[in-house]
Design goal:
Chain lengths: ~90, ~200
Amino acid sequence: MTDVSCETGVGLLMDYLEGVVPGDVRTVLESHVAGCPKCTAFVASYLATPRILREATAATMPPELQRSLVAFLRAQRDDRPRQKDR
Amino acid sequence: MVPEEATDEALASRAALGDNHAFDEITIRYQARVYRLACRLVGHDDAPDVVQEGLLSVYRNLASFRQESRFGTWLYRIVTNAALMHRRTRARRPVESLDAFLPEFDATGRHCHTPAELQVAAHADELLDRRVLAEEATAALDRLPDLYRSAFVLRDLEELTTAEVADVLGVEPATVRQRVHRARLMLRGYLGALAGVRP
């Protein structure tokens, strides 16, 4: 393999990032991306996507829910012995 | 001298033997992470129910924790299963697929868009209002197929390793990579569309 299309490169991107593509394929992919402005731009947006979604969905647990959760779990375990105790 | 903090696994062993304080400590350690995970898997409205169901299931199954994996991985498996069960029992409106946001190529396999268009998703967080982005991100996760959502959330949002996600979901690492990749492609296209580039 001496070069790949953008489409083939995109298909191999995850495996490349996880380090599970063979060395010769890795070299061809790196060479393609280095010479292809479209793939360079694509890879930047592909890499940014998890970070953007991680930050946008980082919910904080409301304090009242923390209190009610502890109370709920205590009530449940007081009411219902575990299976091994039955 | 500060007493050494008990490991999760040690707490789980004590809790399994009936030490309720140990389970309280587990709850305190994990509740924020479990809540965040639940929000990402089922949305904010249903998350409190999943947190309760998930942690109660953890408590009831402590005796089955064999210490073959990390306690955190085992707990994530139980909460993820609780979330998936919860989604299945809810009558959900049909959601529009994200397939339309996959990247497009011409007949020779080259990208159809310009470099500037291809890169715009990387700046979605700068181009969009933070509150709008948070709402859209949650809605986008909801539109992913269940198999892709759980893999993407665990791998990319909760930042478990691929091997850990495979353990949680009971699939091969290659399957995790394939599902996460597909989800990333869809979500990347969706972010680009939000930022003004039509797929």
